[in-house]
Amino acid sequence: MKAAVLHAYNTPLRFEEVPNPVITEPTEVIIKVAGAGVCHTDLHIIEGIWAETLDQKLPYIIGHENAGWVHEIGSAVTNFKVGDPVILHPVSSCGKCLSCRSGEDMHCENMKFSGLTVDGGYAEYLKTSERALIKLPENVDPVDVAPFADAGITAYRAVRKAAPFAKPGTKVVMIGMGGLGHIGVQVMRELGNSDIITVDRDEQRLNSTLELGASHIVKADDQMISQVKKLTDEKGADIIIDFVGSDQTHLDSMKMLRKGGHYFVVGYGGTVNVPSLNIINNEFSIVGSLVGNYNELYELMELYARGKVKLHFTKFPFEQANEVLELLSKGKINGRAILVP
């Protein structure tokens, strides 16, 4: 099969013929990839940021946002048949550890994470497990939903955590209206009751959020903090969800958060630096949020099938993976990019 393979960090992917994946366990499934989402995490993997954390041996195939059709099944697979359209949770979990038994499969002690710890979806075929698959409704094209497998459930999980605090009369600030943020706004509209204030540098992205459920938009410039304060009666936001996670957004968020407020950190790359006295005196809650679990992906697919959540995406030929990654690194991808083999 054709695949885009990472041979060395900080180098372009190589397009080459590699062996097709082979089923070795009875619960494994081979997927014919319809679309693979392109994520900032892919950039971080190529840059080597995850190298020590994952202890991954090169070369391997990246790509953790995947959807397609069942191509081959192991002898113990009972819930899927060849040809079924599916979206893949990025984690193949064991189902036996305490994290799996509590439903938090992304914390599985024995996980295989497509595109991070095992070969991913920048290829024609991908091996995963039956536990990772969610069957799609017949009216849903797998290629159109691939980015929900990570970007979608990452945004969904963060908003789901924040939703109990998003009561009528509260204000939520959502920072970064790119691939995750534009999904997060729609989910907050469905699950929460806060007035939604979106923040971004790009006016086009900001204006689009007004159609998705935002009440107010604020451009990320030197007037941002004062504008957010004005929109929150000078008290600050009750909730901030940060899809960027830079040093600057961390710093700004702590200046925009009201006493007793909740700050959810989704994007990463920066460092949250807050004096402990400020946390105590203001009773700030600072919460990290990882990729969502299997049930959250199922719930998000239900919202999508009902037309409650839309995905802004652009399709690219598989062979343009390096060019698309370069565009993403320069901030020139609006919404999500999907590679089509």
User: At the third CATH level, what is the topology name of the largest domain?
Assistant: Quinone Oxidoreductase, Chain A, domain 1
Note the run of SSEs as H and E. Answer: EEEHHEEEEHEEEHEHEHEHEHEHEHEHE
State the total count of DSSP E strands. Answer: 18
Write the CATH homologous superfamily of the largest domain: Medium-chain alcohol dehydrogenases, catalytic domain
| Most strands sheet | 7 strands, mixed
- Coarse structural class: alpha/beta
Strand content: 25-35%
The CATH class of the largest domain is identified as Alpha Beta
Q: What CATH architecture of the largest domain do you see?
A: Alpha-Beta Complex
| Poorly predicted tracts of residues | none
Please give the domain count: 2
Measured on Cα atoms, how large is the radius of gyration?
20 Å
Terminal Cα separation, in Å? 10 Å
| Rounded mean pLDDT score | 95
Overall shape: it is globular
Q: If helices are DSSP runs of H or I spanning 4 or more residues, what is the number of helices?
A: 11
- Report the helical percentage: 25-40%
Cofactor: Zn(2+)
Protein name: Alcohol dehydrogenase
GO molecular function, one term: alcohol dehydrogenase (NAD+) activity
EC number: 1.1.1.1
Protein described:
The protein has 341 residues and is α/β, with parallel strands linked by helices. It has 2 domains: 2-150 and 292-340, Quinone Oxidoreductase, Chain A, domain 1, CATH 3.90.180; 153-288, Rossmann fold (3-Layer(aba) Sandwich). The protein contains 11 helices and 18 strands. It has helices at 40-47, 51-54, 98-101, 151-162, 181-191, 203-212, 224-231, 247-256, 276-282, 294-305, 321-329; strands spanning 2-6, 14-17, 28-38, 60-61, 65-73, 85-88, 91-92, 112-113, 125-129, 133-135, 171-175, 195-200, 216-219, 237-242, 257-265, 285-288, 313-317, 336-340. The strands form 4 sheets. Strands 3, 5, 6, 9, 10, 17 and 18 form a 7-stranded mixed sheet that branches. A 6-stranded parallel sheet has the order 13-12-11-14-15-16, sandwiched between helices. Strands 2-1-4 form a 3-stranded antiparallel sheet, with no helix packed on it. Helix 4 packs parallel to helix 5 and helix 5 (181-191) packs parallel to helix 6. InterPro entries: ADH-like_C, ADH-like_N, ADH_Zn_CS, ER, GroES-like_sf, NAD(P)-bd_dom_sf.
